[in-house]
C-alpha cells in the first residue's frame, strides 16, 4: 500500500526545504524528496544554494576579500605583512566545511520538525501521486494530498563553449579551481559572473568578462550600474560590453575564445580557464509525467498564478522553477506562503519588494523601482543620493566608494526604490525594504534617528536629500 502524505515536496533547496519545514510546523504530514548525493553517497539537502551556489560562493568571496585586504589595504592601517600567500586548498576546505555544516543542519531541522526525508528523484504522476525513484533504481508511488514542486534551476549551456571537466566550466566548476588561473575568462557580466570573477581576480588572476549586452547590469538602476562599472575597472576587472561569443577552441591546457566585439569585428582571446555564467534555466527534466496536468510557460518554467498554484488543484510550484527572479529568499518566502495556503491560512507575497544583491566588494543591492522604470512609466518621482565618501564611518573603514540612492513619489513622497553600491549595501537596502513594506515616505526615514557613526547614516542622508535637506553634503538646487 502506498505511503500517504498531506504534502510531498520535490526538491530541498531554499524553496523546498523551507516549504517542508513550514508545512510540518502546521501539522501536515510532510515528505521531501531530494536527489543530490555527496561524495560519500549520502544525501545532501539544501539544493544548489547550499551546495554549489549562494553559500560556497560567499565563502570564497569572503576569503578572497580578506586576502586582498591584507595584500592591498593593511599598510594603510599601519599593519605590515611579509610573504603573504594564499593557500587555495585551505580556502576550499573551509568552504566545504561551511557547506557540510549547513546541509547537515537542514537534515537536523527536518528531524526536529518531523519531515520525512527521501533520497532520490521525484516525478509528478496523474491523480496527485508522486513516483519516488530511489538511489538503487527501485521506485515507489506516494499518495499526496498536496504536491509542492521546488526543483530549482541549472546553469545554461551555450553551443560556442561546450563544457569540459576543468577547462571550460559553469558556476559549479568555478568553485573548485585548485589553483589561481593566470588568465581567466568569464562569459556573462551578471550576478554570478561578477561574483566568481571577483573571487579569482582578488587572488591574482587576470580576468576578462565578455558580456553580450551593451548596457552593464541592465536590471539595476543605471546610475548605480555606471558607478559599479567604474569601480570594477579600478579593480582591474576587464569588462567588455557588447561582445558576443561565437566559438571556442580547446587546446588542452588553454582555450581560445572567439567573439564579435561591440563594433561587430571578430576577435579572439586565450584563457587558462573559462567560466560560462550566462544565466540559469528552470529544471524540469524527468519531473512531469504525461497527463499529470501541470503545464510549462513559454520560458520552460512551470506555469503558476500569483500564489504559486499550478493548473492542477493541490499542486503548487515555487522558487527558480517558476516565474520571477531566481533568488533564494524569493523561493523561501513562496515556500512559506504555499505551506500556509495548504494549511488553510491566508497568505500572500509582495512581489514588488524582493531585494536583489550582488556580493562583490563593494556590494550592489536594490529594492523597488529603478529610475529608468519610473521614467518609462511616466510616474513623477524625485531622487536623493548620498556618497559614502562623505560618511565618517566609511572613511574610518576605508570603504568610501559608492552611494545610496532613494527614489520617492513626487506627489506623496512614498519611497519607491532604494539602490546602493557600497559597504553593507545589502543591509541598507533591507532597511529600505522594511520602510517600503510599511508605506514609509522619504520624510519618515529623514525623521528617524540613525546611530552615529554608522554607514546606515548614508541612507538617512539620502532620504533627507530627496527634498534637499541633507546635512553632510551640499544639496542640489531644486528646479523651479
Automatic annotation (TrEMBL):
- The portions of this protein that span the membrane are none
Q: What class of enzyme is it?
A: oxidoreductase
Q: Which residues bind NAD(+)?
A: 188-195, 211, 279
MF-aspect GO terms? dihydrolipoyl dehydrogenase (NADH) activity; flavin adenine dinucleotide binding
What does the entry comment about cofactor binding?
Binds 1 FAD per subunit.
Q: What's its catalytic activity?
A: N(6)-[(R)-dihydrolipoyl]-L-lysyl-[protein] + NAD(+) = N(6)-[(R)-lipoyl]-L-lysyl-[protein] + NADH + H(+)
- Entry-linked InterPro entries: Class-I_Pyr_Nuc-Dis_Oxidored, FAD/NAD-bd_sf, FAD/NAD-binding_dom, FAD/NAD-linked_Rdtase_dimer_sf, Lipoamide_DH, Pyr_nuc-diS_OxRdtase, Pyr_nucl-diS_OxRdtase_dimer, Pyr_OxRdtase_I_AS
Residue pairs linked by disulfide bridges in the UniProt entry: 49-54
For whether the record's keyword set contains Hydrolase, the answer is no
Query: The Pyridine nucleotide-disulphide oxidoreductase dimerisation domain covers which part of the protein?
Result: 354-463
UniProt keyword annotations, A-Z = Cytoplasm, Disulfide bond, FAD, Flavoprotein, NAD, Nucleotide-binding, Oxidoreductase, Redox-active center
Under Enzyme Commission nomenclature, its number is 1.8.1.4
GO CC annotation = cytoplasm
Look up the record and name the cofactor or cofactors this protein needs: FAD
Q: GO:BP terms for this protein?
A: 2-oxoglutarate metabolic process
Q: Where in the cell is it found?
A: Cytoplasm
Question: Keyword Repressor: yes or no?
Answer: no
What further fact does the record state? The active site is a redox-active disulfide bond.
Against NCBIfam families, the record matches this protein to:
lipoamide_DH
Q: Which family does it belong to?
A: Belongs to the class-I pyridine nucleotide-disulfide oxidoreductase family.
Which PANTHER family does the entry link to?
Answer: DIHYDROLIPOYL DEHYDROGENASE, DISULFIDE OXIDOREDUCTASE
Name the UniProt record assigns to this protein: Dihydrolipoyl dehydrogenase
Q: What gene name is given for the protein in this entry?
A: lpdA
Amino acid at each position: 500500500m502506498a505511503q500517504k502524505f498531506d504534502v510531498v515536496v520535490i526538491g530541498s533547496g531554499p524553496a523546498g526545504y523551507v516549504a517542508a519545514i513550514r508545512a510540518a510546523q502546521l501539522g501536515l504530514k510532510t515528505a521531501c524528496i531530494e536527489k543530490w548525493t555527496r561524495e560519500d553517497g549520502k544525501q545532501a539537502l539544501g539544493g544548489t544554494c547550499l551546495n554549489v551556489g549562494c553559500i560556497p560562493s560567499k565563502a570564497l568571496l569572503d576569503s578572497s576579500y580578506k586576502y586582498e585586504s591584507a595584500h592591498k589595504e593593511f599598510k594603510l592601517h599601519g599593519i605590515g605583512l611579509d610573504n603573504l600567500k594564499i593557500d587555495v586548498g585551505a580556502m576550499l576546505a573551509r568552504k566545504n566545511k561551511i557547506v557540510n555544516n549547513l546541509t547537515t543542519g537542514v537534515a537536523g531541522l527536518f528531524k526536529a520538525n518531523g519531515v520525512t526525508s527521501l533520497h532520490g528523484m521525484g516525478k509528478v504522476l496523474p491523480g496527485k501521486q508522486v513516483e519516488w525513484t530511489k538511489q538503487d533504481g527501485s521506485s515507489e508511488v506516494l499518495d499526496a494530498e498536496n504536491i509542492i514542486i521546488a526543483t530549482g534551476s541549472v546553469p545554461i549551456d551555450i553551443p560556442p563553449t561546450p563544457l569540459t571537466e576543468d577547462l571550460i566550466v559553469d558556476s559549479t566548476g568555478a568553485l573548485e579551481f585548485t589553483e589561481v588561473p593566470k588568465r581567466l575568462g568569464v562569459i556573462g557580466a551578471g550576478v554570478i559572473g561578477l561574483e566568481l570573477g571577483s573571487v579569482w581576480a582578488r587572488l591574482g588572476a587576470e580576468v576578462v568578462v565578455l558580456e553580450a549586452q551593451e548596457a552593464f547590469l541592465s536590471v539595476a538602476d543605471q546610475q548605480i550600474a555606471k558607478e559599479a562599472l567604474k569601480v570594477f575597472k579600478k579593480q582591474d576587472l576587464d569588462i567588455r560590453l557588447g561582445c558576443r561569443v561565437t566559438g571556442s577552441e580547446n587546446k588542452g591546457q588553454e582555450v581560445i575564445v572567439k567573439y564579435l566585439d561591440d563594433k561587430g569585428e571578430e576577435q579572439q582571446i586565450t584563457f587558462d580557464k573559462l567560466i560560462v555564467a550566462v544565466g540559469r534555466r528552470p529544471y524540469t527534466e524527468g519531473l512531469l509525467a504525461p497527463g499529470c496536468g501541470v503545464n510549462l510557460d513559454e520560458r520552460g518554467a512551470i506555469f503558476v498564478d500569483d500564489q504559486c498554484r499550478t493548473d492542477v488543484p493541490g499542486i503548487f510550484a515555487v522558487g527558480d522553477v517558476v516565474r520571477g527572479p531566481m533568488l533564494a529568499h524569493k523561493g523561501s518566502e513562496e515556500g512559506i506562503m504555499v505551506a500556509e495556503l495548504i494549511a488553510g491560512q491566508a497568505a500572500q507575497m509582495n512581489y514588488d519588494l524582493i531585494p536583489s544583491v550582488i556580493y562583490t566588494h563593494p556590494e550592489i543591492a536594490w529594492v523597488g523601482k529603478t529610475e529608468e522604470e519610473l521614467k518609462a512609466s511616466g510616474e513623477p518621482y524625485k531622487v536623493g543620493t548620498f556618497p559614502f565618501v562623505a560618511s565618517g564611518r566609511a572613511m574610518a573603514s576605508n570603504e568610501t566608494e559608492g552611494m545610496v540612492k532613494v527614489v520617492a513619489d513626487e506627489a506623496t513622497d512614498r519611497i519607491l526604490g532604494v539602490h546602493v553600491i557600497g559597504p553593507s549595501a545589502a543591509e541598507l537596502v533591507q532597511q529600505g525594504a522594511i520602510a517600503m513594506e510599511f508605506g514609509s515616505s522619504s520624510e519618515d526615514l529623514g525623521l528617524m534617528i540613525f546611530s552615529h557613526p554608522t554607514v546606515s547614516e548614508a541612507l538617512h542622508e539620502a532620504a533627507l536629500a530627496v527634498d534637499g535637506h541633507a546635512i553632510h553634503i551640499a544639496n542640489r538646487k531644486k528646479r523651479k
